[in-house]
Amino acid sequence: MCGARRWGRLVSVPVSLAVEAVLTREIPAGVHAAPHDPRLLARWLGAVSHLAQYMDRIDHLG
Fold first, then answer.
1. Residues 24/39, Cβ–Cβ less than 8 Å
2. What is the spatial distance between Cα 6 and Cα 20, in angstroms, rounded to a whole number?
3. Which pairs with CB-CB distance under 8 Å and at least 24 residues apart come from 8-12?
4. CB 47 within 8 A of CB 13
C-alpha cells in the first residue's frame, strides 16, 4: 500500500470511529480533547494499529 493511501486510512478510520462513538453516545459531539475511557481507546488503537508502521501507547501520567 502506498504511503499516501496508508496515511489517508490512518486519518479516516479514527474519524469514522469517533463518529460511531458520538452516535452511540460514548463521547459527546463537538471538538474535545482525546477521550479518557481506556476501553474506548483500546478499541480505537486496535482498529488502527495495523495501519501504522509503529504505534505504542504511552501513559505519561500513570
1. no
2. 21
3. 9/51, 10/48, 10/51, 10/52
4. yes
Asked if 28 contacts 22 with a C-beta cutoff of 8 angstroms, the reply is yes
HSE, CB side, 13 Å, CA atoms: give it for residue 28: 4
Q: What is the mean pLDDT of the chain?
A: 79
Distance, in Å, from the CA atom of 27 to the CA atom of 6, rounded to the nearest integer, reads 26
Q: Domain ranges for the chain, please list them.
A: 3-51
pTM over 0.70? The answer is no
Q: What angle do CA 12, 32, 13 make, to 5 degrees?
A: 10
Backbone angles phi, psi at 6, to 5 degrees: -60, -45
The percentage of residues in the chain with a pLDDT greater than 90, rounded to a whole number, is 19
